[in-house]
Amino acid sequence: MKVYQKHLPMKRIACILGLIVGLLGLGADAASAQNSSQTSRSYVQAPQVIGMGDAGVAVPSTETGFFYNPAHIGRVAQSTPRINLAGVTGSASTSVFDQIDFFENRLQPAFDRGIDSMPEDSLRSLYQDTFDQGRQRAGLDGQLLMPSVIVGGDRWGIGAGFFAGGDVSYQIRDAGLGVPLLDIVGHTDLMAVGTGAMSVQGVTLGVAGKYTQRYLSFKNKPADAFQSDEEVFLLSGTSFGVDVGFLYDIDVVSIPGTIRVGGAVHDLVATDFDYQHVENPSDAFLVGSLVEAAGTTENADRETIAERENVAAEQHEVAPSYRAGVAYQSQSFGVINAIDVAIDYVGYTDPPVDQTTWAHVHAGLQVELLNRVQVRTGLTQGYPAVGAGVRLGVVHLDYAYHSVEDGRTPGQLRHARHTAQLTFSI
């Protein structure tokens, strides 16, 4: 009996990880996007920012006016409209490839040979390795950048656009008594954003309004509680949020270039998502095929559905977050158009993990060459970040490698990611 109790969770882990690997593959095809471990707000990450350590609240650009600091629109808008025609972003955790390899080379062979026939010490070793692999969060993200436009004058700017994004991620924790707890989350956001900014007495003030339709599915339970016909619920809700931001150029010191301070509060005013069960998942944009492949809720009772809706409202509620930073931008010289040096502090009002001060600090550097090439590097929560971009007419290519800290202090629970973006803009 003791041996059976040890083997049962291991069998279920193998089956569940197999399902997750399949979901991750489906998630890549769905091209869904973005999510941070510290906030549930809907937004689109920019590889142009995360490549320089995720520091950019005081570095205005067309890529940051919608989701990082709405005041940026007032600095980059021109009388000729700047239009993003279309774009796609893909992001993958480095641990995804490690865990797929672990499943194919360790878990699957053990499952094929028969868990019941494994010696106890081999089983214990495999069990521990599964914990170690799953402890690091893994996921695939994607973004669809639909048409957006920015237009303005010397002291003002406005912008509007449509975006889609979501992610599929999972993590294994210890539920106690050596039983794994699986935390699996998948979601897709459809966003419509309008923003405007104006300069008044040297200060540029901006505001953005954002309407989001979200589809959410999640599981958080011990592995030995999973069933072979596990139900997967798809929930849907809407939210409206308001972001505000500012920029100010400091001219008290006479130096070549510009010193600028900036700040933004995201979801300063926001409604929580009013999650409701989706009766027909196949009708849901992007995520329907994932949920149908993972399970069914056709026999779920109203009490179970209500409980999932309440859990979603509690665990994925929207709370304000903020950024504050300072940046220096050099004058152009030779082939160098500009050098940007920036440092940001990013905070959350209701984070799931209370992180130390250093985990909130982001710093970076960007060098632009020949009006075409950008080279970036930085430190994000103590981890190195690198990135690059190139403009080839209407085609823009960007790449970034960076890490996120999921634990309390830098170095505790690293989550590294590769992100690439292709956009077409005029």
Approximate strand percentage: 35-45%
Secondary-structure element sequence? HHHEHHEEEEEEEHHEEEEEEE
Instruction: List unreliable stretches of 5+ residues.
Output: 1-35
Structural class label: alpha+beta
What topology, given as strand order, has the largest sheet? Answer: 1-2-3-4-5-6-7-9-10-11-12-13-14-15
| Number of helices, where a helix is a run of at least 4 consecutive DSSP H or I residues | 7
Provide the gyration radius in Å.
23 Å
Q: How is this structure best summarized?
A:
By secondary structure, this protein is an alpha+beta fold.
Describe the structure.
22% of the residues lie in helices and 45% in strands. The protein has 7 helices and 15 strands. The protein has a 14-stranded antiparallel beta barrel with strand order 1-2-3-4-5-6-7-9-10-11-12-13-14-15, surrounded by 4 helices. Residues 1-35 have low confidence and may be disordered.
Set down the secondary structure blueprint.
Blueprint: H1 2-30, H2 47-50, H3 73-76, E1 82-93, H4 94-113, H5 120-134, E2 138-152, E3 156-174, E4 180-200, E5 203-222, E6 235-250, E7 258-270, E8 276-277, H6 288-294, H7 302-315, E9 321-329, E10 336-348, E11 361-369, E12 373-380, E13 383-392, E14 395-405, E15 414-425
Antiparallel strand pairs: 1-2, 1-15, 2-3, 3-4, 4-5, 5-6, 6-7, 6-8, 7-9, 9-10, 10-11, 11-12, 12-13, 13-14, 14-15
